[in-house]
Amino acid sequence: AKDNGRARYSFYVPGLDVQIRERLSMANLLRHAAERGELALLYQPLIDLRSGRVVAAEALLRWTSEELGVVAPDLLVPVAEDAGLIEHIGGWVLERACTAAAQWQSIAPCRVAVNVSSLQLQAPESFSEQVDMALKHSGLNAGLLELEITEGVLLRDRPTIGALLAELDRRGIRLSLDDFGTGYSALSYLRRFPFHVLKIDRTFIAGIPDNQEDTELTRAIIAMAQALGLSVLAEGVERPEQRDFLVEQGCDLAQGYLFSRPIDADALAAMLGRNGAV
Ligand code: C2E
Ligand code: CA
Ligand code: CA
Ligand code: CA
What we know:
Helices cover about 45% and strands about 20% of the residues. It is of the alpha/beta class. The structure holds ligand C2E and calcium ion (3 copies).
């Protein structure tokens, strides 16, 4: 933190442990981050493995705080959730991502995938309204929006979340099951909820081809997704051997540093302009 008169953002409460104090002051800074223009989205291309073209992009949140520097989303999101800020930030992400995607369409068709925190889904009405507003304001077709949901949330509140997911599906929005294979994987989710895409967590992909267990699990997950009529995406593809293995297995989509790191909206548009070739 810089000492330039912004001391009002840091404070000391005796007895609070350092970590909690850090999270509190981070939450206070985060409260104003969107208004101060400190939040941004980067977009990572999702590649169709058959054509080699970019068919979608995942929006990834970045916070460059004047006081804290760059804060990773893995750290930011839990703080936002604890501080009751995730609804506000999540709404900002939806608006921004849909607006960017609406602009790409004049260049080439490309979906946008937005990460959704489980807490956002706990308030189904306001989430549903945020999605509506983002589509309306941007003019983006609902079929071009994908929502990425992790498995953990599905355990918590089945009737409400089931109804919300069914409603989003009915409106033509695509649903992705994110980080598949980590946490509480229950195959029954794939039957019970209207997912279109299954994203294999990158910890599995990292083990291909050297780790036999990861390689076999990935093979099995792809076969299972195909049998269920789901699109399957491999996250974290970094090496050509991994891409070749995935193509061989008939995996539909891939994402990872091998193709592109997350880039800004203009760079994604430029990539689409090159016929979606990476
Ligand atoms: P995720 O949804 O699993 O996103 C993929 C993460 O993998 C991203 O990290 C991405 O930069 C990284 N990645 C992509 N390709 C590769 C690769 O080839 N190798 C490696 N090692 N990593 C790769 P990032 O951007 O740091 O985001 C971390 C997590 O933060 C995301 O994981 C997601 O859970 C969360 N997140 C990001 N943006 C948002 C957001 O707008 N809302 C919410 N609720 N969560 C978000
Ligand atoms: Ca994701
Ligand atoms: Ca993921
Ligand atoms: Ca992840």
